[in-house]
Amino acid sequence: MATQRNSRTVNLYANAIDQVADAKDRTKWMLLSVLKQRTGLKLSDQFKLKGIEFDWTEFKQQFDLDYSHLTSKELFELLRVKFGFKSLDEVRAAFKKQSQIRRDRQRRYSEELDDYLGTDSDDDEFDD
Questions:
Q1: Which SS3 state, helix, strand or coil, does residue 70 take?
Q2: pLDDT value at position 112?
Q3: Which of 18, 39, 14, 37 lies closest to 98 in space, CA to CA?
Q4: The overall pTM is greater than 0.90
């Protein structure tokens, strides 16, 4: 399947194997994701205690700038020292849990939006 983009055809599935991240890259992304989430939660708690607003978007952007260059070993070491992780399996379990929480939240928001739009569409002032 191809798609039209800027007057040229782009095959989204060309060189599919090259588009899939290596296991090493996926592991690093997982480590970075868990470290970012845990750090953000702790930092947001500290901000709340001080009465400071915590901006997740700004935090995530800065976190990626500060830590995305680290190796998997360095990221795991930070997880071990700062959050007590003892193995990569513990990190995988934490990643799986945070991913499920994110999916559940997205599903809930989607359902709430559907409910809102469904309810609102009956009262639409532009109905003919």
A1: coil
A2: 81
A3: 37
A4: no
Q: How far is CA 37 from CA 2, 5, 42, 50, in A?
A: 36, 35, 9, 20
Residue with tokens 């702790």: 42
- Residues 73 and 91: their CA atoms lie apart, in Å, by 13
What gap in Å lies between CA 6 and CA 118, rounded to an integer?
Answer: 36
Sign of CA dihedral 113, 116, 122, 125: negative
102/70: higher pLDDT: 70
Q: How far apart are alpha carbons 127 and 121 in whole angstroms?
A: 9
Per-residue pLDDT reduced to its tens digit, 41-82: 999 999 999 999 999 999 999 999 999 999 999 999 999 999
| Structural domain spans, the chain | 27-119
